[in-house]
Specification:
Length: about 650
């Protein structure tokens, strides 16, 4: 096949521009990224060769090789791993398949200063393309294990790239960077210096389980085929022995005192493809019949695809130091899908499959322990590292709460690490335990209200009497809140109660005197006729009209009946494609409000007045608007209101 020229995909081109103009100040990380890719390629080949014994691949001396060439000003990173086919090169290297790329780029454009832009790039992690921070041309020669022909890819990062077939490529991938001339003067950025390479590998990639060797002088033949001007390679000199740069020590197998935080962080970055440090490092070991070691990390920020199907769980499984699989879903439940790390088990078979893992009793025990450990770490963060906990909760709280629904065994532990917005303190979140401590004398329930936004809940009529009486209400605005509240019956013996559902039991919270009871009775009798008439008049919209003590300022509000599905939950189910029956809600009236008492009088005077029906409609519409709901017929509401207003002028 002749040389073909391709254009970069739009997003890829934009990202490359940023790399070329180096918006990321720590350029050294390009090497970490290339090594990380090479290491993955070696892992893949090893797994593939176990699975497929007809695969015609060399697996005896899997390694990574780095070759700096001072005169040519090139740096080559080579692996003898799985390699890529021609199609894969175009697919994997020419496009950015990561979800959220477009969004990231939009946010980068908006980013005011360099630190903000750098933070975004760091969160995203730009693998292979980061080579363009230091190179003005990158070429890659690769041959997929088992295939006979290789592919050469080359680009300056501007516009497009070329792809051609090569006949004599060795198995695996070699990435050669033609380093930018301007970095030559600065010792700090001279990536052809063996000292520099050694230092970067030690700092970022020491734990890589494959040997990373440095060859400082290339064998002549190979060099000639890779760079055009190879005549400067002095003949006669013997190539020195390759030097292994990394210790290959599995960090998870070492005790914490032997490993620095930086080393842990680099392992995290290798696993997660994140460029920012994790929030927490969690170590876990088990000795005895089923021995394993584990290192888990809590990231400092949520990935862009936390809620998409593509987000896999980032825990890698090793067996006796040998990489087995990425994203081992058998080890972590979905609500902890943000946890990254490594689990190394001693007694599993090397060719264990995902299906077997799901069934394995030992794995299930291990998973249970990992979950407990993660939850207890979060609890401990909450107590001792509040700032970290706050960051964690902001980024992942929405996901953790899924566990309240899906992991009943750990429900209490999860409830204890949850934080909520509450009417008690506008600035700080509260825990349930603190809520319970603050509960008023005689208060039996933990009150909450769900809604679309904090403002909508704070301004909704349902809250009025609770505010007036000083009863604290939790404000729950994540979509998942609508769901879990139904699954959690109580906390420390206190039931959770929605203030927008069922009867308001405000009066029950305060012991009622005889007098108050008599007053209630009187009101009920007085309003009986109006309520019956309204119920009839609005029967297509509501299932009942009743009086309430929930309101102090508003004339009316709409509530969901005790056993019914809330409108928000109905919407959620529908969005997931599930059928839910439409259940009618209840209209509640404030018997102390002038509009309600006036309506009662008008109805008692002339029950046939056509204006009454319109007032009823307006009253109901207002109650919906006040809680932030949509009207069924907004145009009609507006028309009725305009007519009324006109009459007042
Ligand atoms: P990421 O590593 O985050 O997926 P990269 O842009 O670094 O993103 O690489 C894109 C893809 O190209 C990788 O997922 C991998 O499939 C392939 N790739 C990169 N480097 C190599 C390599 N040395 N050997 C085999 N495949 C590679």
């Amino acid at each position: 096949m002749p040389t073909e020229t391709f254009e970069f995909q739009v997003e890829a081109r934009q990202l490359l521009q940023m790399m070329i103009h180096s918006i990321y100040s720590n350029k050294d990380v390009f090497l970490r990224e290339l090594i990380s890719n090479a290491s993955d390629a070696l892992d893949k080949l090893r797994i593939e060769s176990l699975r497929d014994d007809s695969l015609n691949a060399e697996v005896d001396d899997l390694h990574i090789e780095i070759e700096p060439d001072r005169e040519a000003r090139t740096l080559t990173v080579r692996d003898n791993g799985i390699g890529m086919s021609r199609d894969e090169v175009v697919q994997l290297i020419g496009t950015i398949a990561k979800s959220g790329t477009a969004e990231l780029l939009a946010r980068l454009k908006e980013a005011k200063d360099e630190t903000a832009a750098e933070g975004l790039i760091g969160q995203f992690g730009v693998g292979f393309y980061s080579s363009f921070m230091v190179a003005d041309e990158v070429s890659l020669v690769t041959r997929k294990a088992g295939e006979s022909q290789g592919t050469r890819w080359s680009s300056t990062g501007e516009g497009g790239y070329t792809v051609e077939t090569v006949e004599d490529a060795p198995q695996g991938t070699a990435v050669t960077l033609r380093l930018k001339p301007e970095d030559a003067e600065d010792q700090l950025f001279d990536y052809t210096s063996p000292w520099k390479v050694r230092e970067i590998v030690k700092r970022y990639s020491d734990f890589i389980t494959w040997p990373i060797r440095m060859v400082t002088e290339a064998p002549k033949a190979e060099k000639a085929s890779e760079t055009e001007d190879a005549e400067d390679a002095e003949g006669g000199e013997k190539a020195p022995e390759p030097e292994t740069l990394n210790s290959m020590k599995a960090l998870w197998a070492r005790s914490r005192s032997e490993v620095s935080d930086e080393e842990y962080h680099e392992l995290y970055k290798h696993i997660s493809h994140d460029w920012t440090d994790p929030l927490e490092t969690i170590q876990l070991r088990a000795e005895g019949t089923f021995e394993y070691q584990s290192l888990l990390f809590l990231p400092a920020h949520a990935p862009h695809d936390l809620f998409s199907q593509a987000n896999k769980r980032g825990v890698q499984l090793y067996v006796k130091r040998v990489f087995i699989m990425d994203d081992c879903e058998a080890l972590v439940p979905e609500y902890l899908r943000f946890v990254k790390g490594v689990v190394d088990a001693q007694d599993l078979s090397l060719n264990v499959s995902r299906e077997i893992l799901q069934q394995d009793r030992q794995i299930q025990l291990m998973r249970r322990r990992l979950v407990k450990k993660v939850l207890s770490t979060i609890k401990e963060m909450m107590a001792n590292r509040e700032e970290n906990y706050t960051t964690f909760w902001r980024e992942f709280g929405r996901v953790v709460k899924e566990g309240l629904l899906n992991d009943p065994d750990n429900r209490d532990a999860i409830l204890r690490i949850c934080s909520f917005v509450s009417t008690h303190d506008k600035e700080r979140l509260t825990t349930l335990a603190r809520y319970v401590e603050r509960m008023k004398e005689g208060q039996k329930h933990i009150y909450y209200m769900t809604g679309e936004s904090r403002t909508a809940v704070e301004n909704s009529p349902h809250l009025e009497a609770f505010q007036a009486k000083g009863l604290e209400v939790l404000i729950l605005t994540d979509p998942v809140d609508e769901v879990w509240v139904g699954a959690v019956p109580e906390f420390e013996g206190k039931q959770l109660r929605s203030i927008a559902q069922g009867e308001a039991e405000l009066d029950a919270e305060e012991e009622q005197g005889e007098e108050a009871k008599a007053e209630k009775e009187r009101q009920r009798a007085e309003f009986a006729e109006l309520l019956t008439w309204l119920g009839e008049r609005l029967r297509d919209e509501v299932k009942e009209v009743r009086l309430t003590s929930r309101l102090t300022v508003s004339p009316a509000c709409v509530v969901t009946d005790a056993g019914d599905v809330t409108p928000a939950l109905q919407n959620l189910y529908r969005a997931m494609g599930q059928e839910v029956p439409q259940s009618k809600r209840i209209l509640e009236l404030n018997p102390e409000h002038g509009l309600v008492t006036g309506l009662r009088k008008a109805h008692a005077t002339d029950a046939d007045d056509p204006g009454l029906g319109e007032t009823a409609e307006l009253l109901y519409g207002m109650a919906l608007l006040a809680e932030g709901s949509q009207l069924a017929d907004p145009a009609r509401f507006a028309k009725l209101l305009a007519e009324r207003l006109e009459r007042t002028l």
